[in-house]
Amino acid sequence: MKLAIGSDHVGFELKPIIIDYVKELGHEIEDFGPNSSERTDYPQYGKKVAEEVASGNFDGGILICGTGVGISIAANKVKGIRAVVCSEPYSAKLSKEHNNTNIVAFGSRVVGSELAKMIVKEWLDATFEGGRHAKRVEMIQQIER
User: Fold this and answer.
1) pLDDT in the model for residue 108
2) Distance between CA atoms of 42 and 140, rounded to whole angstroms?
3) Cis omega before residue 34 (within 30°)?
4) Quick check: is 98 catalytic?
5) Residue 86 annotated as catalytic
């Protein structure tokens, strides 16, 4: 899987840990910033990653800010994005299986590195089930149109 990742300054320290972990799992990953811990604004990185995923350049995305909430809200403003913020692995797994999420987000002030890895692994390993869930995802897409 080819993934895009971004954060704000609060998520900056956790980001390289997740990048290394994703590579260990055998996936490609590209960092869309920031490149330092200097104060920055999360919407620009949520938007960058979301646009890359929505355009089809990447199969999915990972976003990190203080809580995961703000950066996921920004990503969800991009047409075609279904970003989920997760603080535990079960919701990450079901978000992909039932909602076909294409971006997972979490907060570096909420989860530690090991829990973040578990969230990412469950999300990456999950597959959209389709079936009755496909109808619901289509309903979400209709709202977006």
Assistant:
1) 98
2) 25
3) yes
4) yes
5) no
